[in-house]
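Subgroup meeting minutes
Present: P.N., E.W., G.H.
Scribe: E.W.

1. P.N. recapped why we're keeping a running log of single-chain structure predictions: easier to compare across weeks, and new members can see raw inputs and outputs side by side.
2. G.H. added today's entry (466 aa).
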Amino acid sequence: MRLWARIALGFLLLVGPLGALFVLGGLEAARRYHQEIVQSQYRDLAKNLLDMAPDLSPKGGGLDALAHELAMANPGVEVYLLDPGGRVVGASVPMDAIRRKEIPLGPLRTFARGQGPRPLLGADPKRTGGRQAFSAARLPDGGWLYVLLSDRRLDSVAAAVEQSTVLRLALSLAGGLLLLAALLAAAIAFFLTRRTDALARAMAAFDPESGPLPPAPKRIRDEVDALAARFAELARRVRGLLASERAADRHRRELLAGVSHDLRTPLAVLAGTLEALQSARLSPEEQARYLAAAENQVARLSRMIDALFTLARLEAGAWPFAPEPLRLDELAQDVVLEWRPRLAAKGLALAFDPAPHPVVVRGEPGLLERVLLNLLENALAHTPAGSWVRVEVGEGKKGAFLAVADGGEGIPPEVQGRIFEPRFGQRTGLGLAIAAAVARLHGGGLEVESAPGKGSRFLLWLPENP
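Output recorded in log:
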């Protein structure tokens, strides 16, 4: 069953019984109102009848003549003679039709005192459970003249409806209104669920790989629009995640291809060196030279594998990151003092340009030192002898920064956006990719400013320690 049909059915199941209760309550109220009007109108009927037939008594006659007159005037009125204990001793109806031989006198005494609510109902001698509006008057000898006023044809709802044109019209009107309410409920439910059906179709048609994205609603009017907006956002995220996953998979394949190529060279050199060492015709000097070459290739392999595992742990979020407040200018100064002789041996002048005041950041000293070492290694590899390298520490718009500038060959503009990828040609290796991953881990970033023939400037910026 469709959702709109279920909503309409639920509305009918709620309104139908309530409507029936309302109709039944209205009919009962009408019957009670009729009894109240009759009792108020004929309140003194029993007293007047007693005045017309003063000889009425539980022990005497006179009731037959009075019953005949009442039957002519109002056939719905019944008269009973009660003894002082409430026992029926005479009636305007045949005595064999009486089912209740004794009438409770409490309502009669309340009526005689003029108290109690209206209508005040008394027991019906002809029915064991019936109650009717009445008039009553006390007889001189202590008994009661008990007059039932209501027409029994109006006692039940069905009979009241059958006898009343107004009630039949009211019930027909109520049925028509109920049918109209059902139609309106179905129409409203269909209108309300139309947008949910459209959203369900959009969800079923959405392809995470391709195709148009579901549009977001222009404005949020209700929960359905909120759900549609949430689905549109989720669809965009799914599409973006799939695109990122495809890009990451492509980068992994490129990385594996590049690492395989890089590993193949030192392994080939190492294999050739070991093969040469097996020759017995090598002199001690040649053996020492081959052993040194083998050691260099082993160290190169070790550095490559270490860089690969470091990058994998950083990108997977598995690095045990434990930041602490540190002086960025002091860390840079220590590295500069250590590397200045090494760069001088390569014919490069290493300068240090610190900030005029301490620069404090929150980070992991080992990782930040590795970033600076990687940037210096990159400058050393791509700066010719006789040029210069400069390390800078300061504060800018984005926070604290650590920069390494060089007078090297520079980087073409078309490849500057790719040099921080895990594998990009043979120029950068994994050093810049590791530096970029460390920057992201610290909540910062790594940027490059370069032009062919004019050198490069790598800028690491970090949030300052609060």
